[in-house]
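Hi R.,

Here are the chain sequences for the assembly we discussed:
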Amino acid sequence: MRSLSEIETTSKRASKALGFSWGIAEEIGKNIKLLEMFNIPGVRNLNEYFKVYKKKQFQNISLILKSNISKISYCPIIAGLNFLDQVRTLEQTKQVYFENMAFPILFIPFSSRASEIIGKRILFKVDEKEFLLNFNQSIYSNYLINSILEKGNKIEVCFLENVNSFNENEWNELYKLSENTFVEESEELKEKTAGAGLTDND
Amino acid sequence: MQVELRNPTVLMKLSKLGSFHQSKLSFLRSFLKEFKDWEYNRDLFELDENGFGKAVYSFKKNNRIYSLVCFANKISNEERSDRVIATKWDAAFALHDGIPTKKDLERLSENVPKQEIGRLSYKELTLSRANKSVRIFDHVVKNLSNGEQPNKDILSKVGYLYRTTAVYGSGKFGLADRFRIKNRKEICGPFRLEMMLVYLVRQFTFDQVDLIAKYKNPKKAVKLDRKICRNLGIGNSTGLGMAPFIVNHPTLLNNWILAKETALKKIREIKYVKKIDESIFKNCLNKSLENIKFWTSDSDFQIKKIESLKSDLKKFIFFLKNNFNFNEEYPYNKIYIWCEQNLGDEAIEYIVSIMMEPYEEVVSPLTNQMSSDEEKYFTIPTNKTINDLRNVLEKNYSEILKIDFSKKESNQNFWFISKNKEEPRIANRYLDLGSELEQPLGIARDIKKLYERISAQKNSLKIEKFLIENNDLRHVVRRAFLIEKFPYSEIQDNTIGSDLVPIDMLRLKLSFFGAVKFDPRSDKWLRICMFQGAPLADELKSLDDYWVYNSLN
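And here is the predicted structure of the full complex:
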């Protein structure tokens, strides 16, 4: 079994060998390590992408817009990198759309890291496949096949607002149950045992 | 009184960093303190009359066990080499997480002796190999088998029976990644498991000589005297592999240096020094002088350093005896200022290390702050502006911005990774091939380039926009924003210039390991000694932290 450290170093070196700058290669190394840690096939997708990288032409998008459409497939690395760098600005748009991206799995770790930066979950959709990116702590997906995804036709990146996954009623029910760990308080207990919290309004 | 931390632009010069010495913060000392109450065992010792075979040593506490698996092999004299290009060694070792099963031992016996071309698993934590110091090893075996102890003078010149030539960890060759073990309390300090491996290898070397001597002459042979054992360490030959490490791990480097600087600051701020602490300081200083007598080298570079250290320490001791009173207020601050004004870097850093000795309460909490969660700081804060970046560069890289990179000599060297061993090397850009595959270790050059590049940019431009056209400098943009938070994260020198002495970079790292007896064999590799004077594995419970100042005599 290859260690994550080996995966990161080799991905970084391979990326540099293919012509990416050292700074971008460092990002790719970290990203592939992240994918493999979450059991998403990073090495396989990167390897396949690099096989066609020099042969085919890819669109290097620099400034990401709300909607990005290209006849030539977007490079997932340059698109991902700029998405990561520009995420604080892009967050205002609520949703970013790409049409035609090569090897979209390689975009995922950039968005996962972006989710941590902005403190919001990101829903990343590649056609019918969905990836919920949770603050770079975990990735939840309906796509569990360890396979290569050569192309995504429609890619949506949605910034999810921080809302509860439960309703107020459910919360109240649970809270009521939690109250059973509290001690009933008499006036005497209040006087004798309370700290500043009950009298000071700070 | 508030003492300022030392200025990074001065302290982080390579000549200064290359004068650092072991201290109470050193990893091998903090390792021994952490593991002193662990149960030590020799679990397996199956060696033949020549000392070839396998052995297992372990440390155990509660449910946690670390086992060193050793394989000693026959190699010919011609095959024995300390260079990283070697493919065979007298012994090879792996530190296993837990108790190795029979199957594990079989797997390890196939792979550990092969080192870089073998494969380890997530159950192994560190990997190493070592060669005998043949002259010393044979001398010891011969004497022990004749019922005599070896000649201490001969031993003192070398200081060890074996020297390791590499110690690998953190995911190399399939070893466990750091994330798997980083939350274990006992290994919160850096390189703790590497230190454990080296320490247990030292015990193996003593057991091996005893066994071979016994086989040679069962009736007459004696065991190596425990006092002599204590005064033998483990050697290490270190090449360029260590040098890029301190460039590639900026936050870690910062945390090591910051711990040292914080300790020094706190000690300089002590108003009144207790008699007992004064006595510990003086005692360690005097004892350490005995040790320095045994520091030898054939390197002119190192001979000059040792001589300057010796003569400066004489000067310092004279000052201490005749012109200094520990009863004055802030005595360590006065000592430090006097050292800065009167001594060279070797002696200043030496005395800084000794100043820490009486102050366990200052140093101990700092040893737990010497690791780094590097991932946390990896992402570039692209919401910052060019103005922010310019301020960071001007404030933190002022020395580097003065370097003239239009001069040929400022660009003379390049760092690369060798194909056969995947190890770092340094070569002359104008004479050697391969500079197009240069590693990103010319940080000073690239920082200067970044500074020049942003000179024409608007102050208000955000980094997210600047990077669109300037990703070739992304690696140094990242570093620049790191140094803002981690002032000691960057070497303030040109690591590709013609006057670079690479062993300064090695020396820095080795001093934090706790190495002594620096003996450069060229400007690119050196030999050192670790654990010389340390208690033996079965004596750890009564560890005396000043063991490092025990001399051979």
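The radius of gyration of chain A is 23 Å. Strands of chain A lie at 67-74, 95-102, 122-126, 129-134, 138-141, 151-159.

Let me know if anything looks off.

Best,
T.
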